[in-house]
Design a protein that fits this description.
Layout lengths: L19 E4 L9 E5 L11 E6 L6 E5 L5 E2 L3 H4 L10 E4 L6 E6 L4 H4 L1 E7 L7
Parallel strand pairs: 1-3
Antiparallel strand pairs: 2-8, 3-7, 4-5, 4-8, 6-7
Length: 128
């Protein structure tokens, strides 16, 4: 836990490149917004880190945006070959029995994607 830094109450976590990691939100826990800030030690030649997380709450959408608030297209994670994946490429499996979010972290496109935001939307249209 990084107390009283930007962002406040954030975690700094190291990952070995070339591996897949699954982090799990426990029952009754979920995210509405999660910031991902990449360390400046990444280089474009680093191997991909594949991340998988669940979400338990109903979601109309889960989006990933870059540091300029530009939406990264869904399904980029599954439509590209391994070597073409860029930091933040993702796919959302929103079926009730699955509800998973897969994304990649790497040193590619750090000018635009060094800081990204995952946002879970419960409702998009006609929300009360």
């Amino acid at each position: 836990m990084r107390d009283k830094l930007k962002p406040s109450n954030g975690w700094a976590i190291p990952f070995a490149t070339g591996h897949r990691y699954r982090f799990h939100w426990g029952e009754g826990l979920d995210f509405e917004r999660m910031n991902i800030e990449m360390a400046n030690r990444w280089v474009p030649s680093d191997l991909n880190v594949h991340m998988v997380t669940n979400f338990t709450d109903v979601r109309a959408a889960v989006n990933m945006t870059d540091e300029f608030n530009v939406l990264i297209a869904n399904e980029t994670y599954i439509t590209k070959v391994e070597d073409a994946l860029i930091n933040g490429d993702y796919v959302v499996y929103n079926q009730t029995e699955v509800r998973e979010f897969h994304f990649v972290l790497n040193g590619k496109d750090m000018d635009n994607r060094a800081n990204m935001v995952m946002t879970g939307h419960r409702c998009i249209v006609d929300c009360d």
